[in-house]
Amino acid sequence: MQHPPLDSRISKTCYAIVFTPSRRRSRFPENCVEIKESAKAALEAAAPEQHRHPAHVIGPSRSSEGVRLYYLIDWLDGS
Fold it and tell me: Is the pLDDT of residue 22 over 60?
C-alpha cells in the first residue's frame, strides 16, 4: 500500500464518496472523489451498486505527473 504524503499544509483528512469499480486501489484521482461533511453523510450517499463507496481519505496531493490525488485511509463500510 502506498503511503500518503505527509505535507499537512496541503493535504487534509476528510470523508468522501469514491467512485471506483475496484476497491483494490489505495489512491484516486480528484475527479473520482466527492468530499462529504461527515462519515455519516458519506455512508448515506454510498451506492455500491453504482461503484460509489464511502471512504476516509487524505488529500489532495499533487503526484509527480501533476495529477491531484486522494489517498485511502480506510473504507467506511468495513469492506
Answer: yes
State the cell numbers at 34: 466527492
pTM for this predicted structure: 0.83
Report d(CA 55, CA 57) in Å as an integer. 6
Q: Cell triple for residue 11?
A: 493535504
What are the distances in angstroms from CA 40 to CA 16, 35, 58?
10, 12, 17
> 36: which strand partners?
15
Question: What is the DSSP track for 12-69?
Answer: EEEEEEEE-S-TT-SEEEGGGEEEESSHHHHHHH-BGGGTEEEEEEEEEEE-TTS-EE
